[in-house]
Fold this sequence. Notes:
This protein has helices spanning 4-24, 84-102, 114-121, 129-141, 159-168, 186-194, and strands spanning 30-33, 43-51, 55-65, 71-83, 106-111, 147-152, 175-178, 198-201. It is an alpha/beta fold and 206 residues long. The strands form 2 sheets. A 6-stranded mixed β-sheet has the order 6-5-2-3-4-7, with helices on both faces. The chain has a two-stranded antiparallel sheet with strand order 1-8. Helix 2 packs parallel to helix 4 (129-141).
Amino acid sequence: MLSFTNISRCQTRILERPARGFIRNLHRGDIPVSWKRPQIGWTKLNFDGSCKGAAGEASIGGLFRNHKAEFLLGYAESIGTTTSTVAELAALRRGLELVLENGWSNVWLEGDSKSSVDIILKRQRVRSKEAQRQVSRINLIMPELENCVLTHVFREGNRAADKLASIGHQMQKPKIWRHIPPDDILWILQEDAKGSDLIVTLTYDH
């Protein structure tokens, strides 16, 4: 039987670091964003969903890297017509299924849709039955992991997953890359490994 305390413990750890970062940057217009490596012994999943329009043809993508920023596995697939929220959740759900298949137990999950991340972290209700199905699957898998962290990152720190999600639109069937990434994301992986910063401009209402 799944333990609710395991889910809560995972979510409490998730909320700590992003909250401090937000407070630190609250009054800054420009902030540097870069992809961050996981700790030794951890695997990091960056995931993303892509949807053409509010509800249109959708696809998902994601990739796993280790503490050396080495590419371990990537995935992309078209998932038919749905909403952007379902696409984001489906990308996370598929990534978590691959986590189990590959036996990774210490996993950092990161996506660029804050609303979708908040659905999991804050246990927000979703109206769509398909979104509910994705959330249920995610909540079943996360407690099975020894350690997990889920965070939001700006799109500039999630470019490789964003590109894979875009590639997913072209797929006739699901695709998985093991150890050797597609050529389209090689330059992004190289920049991420260097820790290259991109500047994000935030606009605040006063």
